[in-house]
Amino acid sequence: MLFKERALLSISMIALIVLALFQVHFTPIFRITIRKTLVNNLKILRDRKDFLALTIFFFLIVLSAPYSTQHPEYLLERFTLKLPFLGLPLAFISLPKISYKDFIGFHYVLIFFIFLASIYTMVYYGLDYENITHNIGMGKHLPTPCNHIRFSLIIAYAILVGILILFRKDKLSNTNEHYGIGIVTLWLFAFIHILAVRSGLFFMYIGIFILTCLYIYQSKAFLKGLFIICLLGIIPVTTYFIVPSFKNKILYTVYDLRMYQENTGKNYNDSQRLYSIATGLKIAKDHPIIGVGAGDLKYQVIQYYKEKHPDFQEINIIMPHNQFLTFFAGTGIIGLLLGIIAFFTPIIYNKNYQNIFFLSFYILIFLSFLVENTIENALGISIYLLITLLCLKANTTNKYQLQNEFKH
To answer: What residue numbers bound the domain in which 300 lies?
Structure first.
């Protein structure tokens, strides 16, 4: 599901919502009725603050609608895009309980499909190696099955999951499945360096570092933990000298930042991100209480560029590359506070952070929020909601088994 087009993603999520609301009967005649458990499920949702908090992301659009008047079509697009935040929490509440084995099995499947996607990407790279490597040095990216940044995010999560399964000795059966998980995780670790998407690499390294610190704290294995941390410093340096795509990306980044410092970076990726953040901060500063309206933010960003950077082509104008800043500029300090509550409640409520898989994912998604407007597109919303709701649902019956414990 994560690698399909936006339309299929939307249809899939709508189908889950419809199944939560309605029940299909095939006998004695075909008919569709309101699900008998709907009222009870709504009561459960009301009492589950971790599920309920996610709906705030949708209501931020609702609250800013009255003063989002410049581009009603963009406001409608925001409504449609954020609808899953309203419906999917109820859909997951309505699902049967998820067992510990099902939860681990889901992650096995996730790792497997990410592995297949990485093989596909590497074959594509091999067929046009020189041209793609050159393009990476010019700021482009290796062609991927979906948005390369979201792709790198889910790869980083798959790597952390693989590490967790190995260190925690989670199993679906008594076979030697861990050898397979170990090989695939090692492959994905190498692949993400070849892919050379900086945000994904950054997310992964920070995630591994935090998990290593947790492992040291729990197991008191200081020497082993120190060795892992040293490797985290050595591997990127070594990779720079042996992986051309990684080296080209680093060289391009240095060049790009120099162009920004010289105020000539309008056509360069990192410069565009920095310009977008500066623009978001200016808009937030000018409209600090309620923002400019989530439906008008894109219009305001374009207007700001036309005034301050008239030499920018509209194709190079991007929205603020920080999710929290997007909340702030679009809905003001009120929206920012509500967005922070919506984001942190699922992981804090009822000590859900004790689920080590959920904690790992939230580390990655929080870092993503700092450098991307992660939930402003269908794929980002799909990744965030699917894994968050799956972890929350699994916590209902498997909390002890998913706690932050490493077996050694």
So the answer is: 53-86+263-403
